[in-house]
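Reviewer 2 asked us to include a model.

Predict the structure of this chain.
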Amino acid sequence: MSRGAPEMVLQVGEPMLPERIGDLTGLGEFGVAGELIAAFLAAFIVGNLMLAMTGLAGPWAKRKITAAFTDRIAVNQIGPAGVGIIVADAVRLLSKENIIPENVDRPAYDVAPIVVASSAMLGFAVIPMGTGIQLADPEVGLAYVFAVSGIASLGLVMAGYASSNKYSLLGGLRAVAQNIAYEIPLVVTGMSVVLFAGSLQMSTIVEAQSQALIDLGVVSIPQWYALVNPFAFVLFLIANFAEVGRNPFDTPEAPTEIVAGYQTEYSSVYFVLIYLGEFLHIFLGGAIIATIFLGGPAGPGPAFLGIVWFLLKIWGVFMMTQWLRSAVPRVRIDQLIEIGWKGLLVLSFANLLLTAIIVGLIA
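Predicted model (structure tokens):
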């Protein structure tokens, strides 16, 4: 980065978004009730920002990107560049009859879509998106986001089991087997970042990356952990793609094998929730990658541009998932499990050991 455009740095201890809203609206003067309302408003803002991104990505961006890769036209008739398809799809899906198959386990069948979508939304609570744009900053932030994102596995296996459909059951079993196989390498690789930063707190991890890695006079390269440890960055990317079920690791859905897997028997609003949860988890994975490897909201220019840089990094990860979806073939389920347990797991522990040795020598 040039010296003429200094990098925005996130400072630890800055007021969180609920506190800023409380001060701005005067709600902070009403005690606990005011703080709860301010926290609700802050969560409402962040949640709707993520939902808006998901609404743009699912019905429209996914189709346009895939069409560009496969030399097709995609949506272009409804609104400018076909962007009206977002509203059209929403009306079409939500107005359809919600068909409930016979012999389903009704409580689990009803709850599963909510679990899949809400587990991703909970993860955004500790993600620093810019100066003061963060709902909470606990000392165990990274552990928290891994924990709540893992709840989605419960929702997927509930959907597969409760649907009373052999294809759904296979999809649910594949999903939980895949998540177990890749969750461990994901967490272990994330711990290598913790060794560098010395903390699980998300704001501290971002601040630790604000120093210059290489100063060439005119250009200063930031100490982003993707540059400090590119091996860990690549491992984390691969494990994340498996966690969110993107190619070549989309075997839990595998339309050519098991129709659509765990979501085969869902329709109308239930299907929307599962589809929404899928894209929310892609963006959550991108947010985690941006935070622990790409400096979070750091970027050239003033502090208020931090949210812009952060969202661009998330969309960069999303673009990569769509590229893989169009360019890389799906692996078989046995290959997927073998890659996770025999490949990524061993490499992630090797990376953790190597990182510990390097940090120890530097200390």
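Residues 17-356 form one domain. Confidence is low (pLDDT under 50) at residues 1-6. We have added this to the supplementary material.
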